[in-house]
What we know:
7 strands, 8 helices
Amino acid sequence: MICIVIPAYNEGKRITQVVKDLADLDLKIVVVDDGSSDHTSELLNQLPIIKVQHAINLGQGAALKTGTEVARSLGATIIAHYDADGQFTKEDLVKLIDELKNNNYDIVLGSRFLDVKSDIPKLKRMTLGLAKLFSKHVLQLNFTDPQNGLRVFRSDVLDKLSWKKDGFEHCSEILGLIKKQNLNYKELPITVNYDSYSTSKRVRPHVKMGFKMVVSKLFE
């Protein structure tokens, strides 16, 4: 069984369409409402998904952790992580799943910086570029897109991917675990759709995340 985990925090404007776009795929959908203050929770009650509720906002990493554990308890053999804001495409998700199923990989990661070029806004591209430099030269992680949240992995490697970070830092932590545990991985090109909605809420959290990562590295 394949299970897709979607963390959602105040995604009332997009979550219904995101779920509907995935409805024809043969997989289970787990959506974690991460303490939303809008109408996300009410919308989830009307959708054909497994809803998990956080009483307060804990962060994307924590929401993914909760949803991933639920997916494992349901018996999923393959687990995917997917965003709730409409940036990812169903076609790319299927491509990553097929790559994992048909080859000897533990995890397949999406990348905005391979063959397919996403139309990334200038400020976002700069932020991602700095994150990539930090990941490569400070964390010693040579991945092409260290902050991409679209990933698919086998559930039997989940114990080796036991990330602890509750916020956006979980992306880099997962890459560090892939390297530390010597997991067999592949990056595939994906297209990320940017619009005013999805970009308006992303820059500030990533700047804050970068600051946390620097401080953590200095005092580890």
